[in-house]
Amino acid sequence: MKVRKKISEVMVISCEKIMPLPAILDKAYPCCPLDELEFQLSDNELYDAYREQQKIFLLQDADRHLELVVFGTEREALDEEAEAAELSSFQEQYGFSYEDATNPDSNFYILEEAVDRFQDEQDCNLPENEVWENIIRNILSELAA
């Protein structure tokens, strides 16, 4: 499959970081964000790219569902005092911080594990939100034990 994209639309995934291609290109390779790239993907490469993007979306879902489990709503909806109280409660209940739970470099990072379990446990007969919530609560309980 041939893919044609503007340079400004191309993202590079490296070590679970996503960066725009123009930010990576060296000054020795000047480019305009509207310049186009064309590249060929084999079926396997296309499938791998699809799976990688799917995993990114699932990590975002896991992060959002963790936020809903911990804060009962989206974090931005809370005032600073309520947010601080929930973060403190989380730390006391589980023995590690919310930031540790969402930091890929932490020993308490749970999002990747939540995605793996979700992929194993998802069932079209169960509400997706319920599956995420149960998985996240189980992981947190296991880490707190």
List the helices and strands and how they pair.
Layout: E1 2-6, E2 11-14, E3 17-20, H1 21-24, E4 36-40, H2 43-71, H3 80-94, H4 98-102, H5 111-121, H6 128-144
Antiparallel strand pairs: 1-4, 2-3
Based on CA atoms alone, the radius of gyration comes out at 19 Å
Q: Strand content of the residues, in percent?
A: 5-15%
Report the strand count. 4
Number of domains: 2
Q: Are there runs of 5+ residues with pLDDT below 50, and where?
A: none
Give an account of the 3D structure.
With 145 residues, the chain is of the alpha+beta class. It folds into two domains: 1-40, no CATH class; 43-144, no CATH class. 56% of the residues lie in helices and 12% in strands. The strands form two sheets. A two-stranded antiparallel ribbon has the order 1-4. α2 (43-71) packs across α5 (111-121), α2 (43-71) crosses α6 and α5 (111-121) packs across α6. It is globular. It starts with a strand and ends with a helix.
What is shown here, in short?
The protein is α+β, with helices and mostly antiparallel strands and about 140 residues long.
List keywords for this structure.
single chain, 2 domains
